[in-house]
Amino acid sequence: MSQDSATATDGARKLTGRRRREVVAVLLFSGGPIFESSIPLSVFGIDRQDAGVPRYRLLVCGGEEGPLRTTGGLELTAPYGLEAISRAGTVVVPAWRSITSPPPAEALDALRRAHEEGARIVGLCTGAFVLAAAGLLDGRPATTHWMYAPTLAKRYPSVHVDPRELFVDDGDVLTSAGTAAGIDLCLHIVRTDHGTEAAGALARRLVVPPRRSGGQERYLDRSLPEEIGSDPLAEVVAWALEHLHEQFDVETLAARAYMSRRTFDRRFRSLTGSAPLQRLITQRVLQAQRLLETSDYSVDEVAGRCGFRSPVALRGHFRRQLGSSPAAYRAAYRARRPQGGGGERGNGGRNDGAQPGAAVRTPGVPVVLRTGRRGGRDGSRGALPARPRRVRSRTPGPAGTAECPVGWGP
Questions:
Q1: Domains identified in the chain, total number
Q2: What are the DSSP calls for 284-335, one per residue?
Q3: Structure letter (DSSP) for residue 218
Q4: Domain check: are 190 and 246 in the same one?
Q5: Which residues contact 351 (CB under 8 A, 6 or more apart)?
Q6: What is the pTM of this model?
């Protein structure tokens, strides 16, 4: 749930040396995507004082020797090097070129030093991998693009990766999901620094909403996580996806894998960075989401077709994950897609009038699994451990319409 709280600045420490709060350094690397790189430049690098937006001083720094090649073959020359970071109160890493490659040691040292001296460190999208490599996310909640969240969780097990959020503010270290979520986090930073009116004025200039509802779960893909694709557990996970209409729990999956529940949990966590119970509940909620969008089944029928033991269990998990009741979600979805109408009964929710881009389950096309917060009467046992939370990006109200299929993972 989105909130602007005093906890957002609890982690901020007094700046030391030459650092100034209004100075923002953006750390660029060769091979970085141009869109993510341009976000902090547009937010913090343009004087919009005429619109009521306080001015920041922007320092664009090269994290390695230039020129820096970006997407489309463009070459950039950063006006500053790593030494300029020593003046910044906020350091932004908008992206990293490869989640499998280690960032330059000099850049990691500069980030650690900046953090030690009280600077706020921000990682947009895959920039979270740079922050994690520097050790700045150890023991902290963080997010990144949903597609890379399992890799981040597996590579850095001390990081509490939450692939549901658009951004996570943990005081002096902040991370965002992919691409446009970087705008959400940068607006949040302006709101934290200068208030809601300044952030709203900037959002109007950028022609974007000042706050977006929902999280990343609407965009997640149903394909098996990359880390589990070649593992023997892949067969068990695939079976679960094909039998969501049946009532089974994690013990059932463990038995199919010929493992104890504890061993199965440990193996699944080591591969994906999250618990199987979380993924099972989330997958069922997302299956319910698709049926509400594409069929005329009642909420009670949807609950049964998604493996929930009662409509009450569905409603509870649905509201916790998507911020809305199933009935309200369906009404909001149909209001946005008035020409599509309801799906036909008895055909899995598919109908010829479905709008292009509607989240309809199609063979070979992935779904998503989003983490629920508590166990319920859906055949899953136990309660989920609470993760440390500060300021998250979620806001109340019906989630927006997904324009791509959603499913298992990350």
A1: 2
A2: HHHHHHHHHHH----HHHHHHHTT-SSHHHHHHHHHHHHSS-HHHHHHHHHH
A3: G
A4: no
A5: 294, 295, 340, 341, 342, 343, 344
A6: 0.60
